[in-house]
Amino acid sequence: MLIDLHAHSTASDGTDSPAELMAAAQAAGLDVVAITDHDNTGGWDAAVRSRPDRLTLIRGAEFSTLAAAPGRMVSVHVLGYLFDPDHRAIVDEQARLRDERLRRGLAIVAKMVAAGLPISAEQVLQIADGAPIGRPHIGRALVASGVVASVDDAFASHLAGPGSFYVPKADTALDTAIGMIAAAGGVSVIAHPRGRGEYRALTFDRIRDLADHGLGGLEVDHPDHSAAERAELRGIAGRLGLLTTGSSDYHGHNKVLRLGQDTTDAETLARLIGMSSGVTVPVGPVGSPPW
Ligand code: AMP
Ligand code: FE
Ligand code: FE
Ligand code: ZN
């Protein structure tokens, strides 16, 4: 049973349309895939319509949040699964984040244009094609204009870190996002909790507090995690009774990752589905696996 619970489409910063993502999941031999675009559910309907018969689809989203760490705020991503997409708080917050991503994307592009880089706001909007703007869209514009060779290079030289063109955005508070997902009948799982500096905010005590306030699990097996980080996270999840998921965080050609690179076991998925009440589950083959 191959289960990948974290993948992006063109509804955010992936390069496969939702239909292409479904086809790619089947071609990769997956039994279950979750569509988890950043801060929106715009790809759900197309994914449902194009789902191959033997593939189970889990509907989700990756919520951009901010969490307090000593002396600074840290970006933490939270995967929400099987929540009601029409829940008021989620609809309102996703609309606010779409505007915020547009404002911030245009601010990054304006800084680049002022520095003489040959890209434009129109070009980035065209690449995003209606999706909420993410830095990978700007990275693709830099690749198309010959400034860098790849989106990875764009992140290394232009889009992240001190001295880059990075502009922050006002993401949802971590506790608010977890509360919103729970209120909408969904299950929350912290995405790559050791991926990029999240450890500053996600101490054991903080994770325990989040678990007391509705957090469902930790994404333990993720391409950005070392063996030691996976072991540490598995230990924390075990002590707190949290789900441990695994996934690829597939983004199409924007990142060098394979669907199914890291996976979740079937029993964990069955528990996750059992904890949800937001959207109806039969999104896959009837009569198969334990759900
Ligand atoms: P944003 O949501 O606009 O802040 O952009 C963050 C997104 O960029 C995340 O979805 C990551 O998947 C993606 N990302 C982060 N680092 C890299 C990288 N080195 N190469 C490609 N994509 C990246
Ligand atoms: Fe992304
Ligand atoms: Fe993420
Ligand atoms: Zn992701």
Can you walk through the features of this model?
The chain is α/β, with parallel strands linked by helices and 291 residues long. It folds into two domains: 3-84 and 172-203 and 218-232 and 244-287, Metal-dependent hydrolases (TIM Barrel, Alpha-Beta Barrel), CATH 3.20.20.140; 96-159, DNA polymerase, domain 1 (Orthogonal Bundle), CATH 1.10.150.650. It is built from ten helices and eight strands. Strands 1, 2, 3, 4, 5, 6, 7 and 8 form an eight-stranded mixed β-sheet that branches. It is globular, with a radius of gyration of 18 Å. The chain starts with a strand and ends in a 16-residue tail after the last helix. Bound molecules: adenosine monophosphate, fe (iii) ion (2 copies) and zinc ion. Adenosine monophosphate binds at residues 13, 38, 134-136, 151-152, 155, 251, 254-255.
Strands, count: 8
- The CA-CA distance between the termini, in Å, is 13 Å
Compressed to H and E, one letter per element, the order equals: EHEHEEHHHHEHEHEHEH
The fraction of residues assigned to DSSP E strands is 15-25%
Structural class, from helix and strand content? alpha/beta
Q: Describe the global form.
A: globular
CATH architecture field of the largest domain: Alpha-Beta Barrel
Biggest sheet character: 8 strands, mixed
Number of helices: 10
- Which topology of the largest domain does CATH recognise? TIM Barrel
What is the helical fraction, as a range of percent?
25-40%
Number of domains: 2
> What is the top-level CATH class of the largest domain?
Alpha Beta
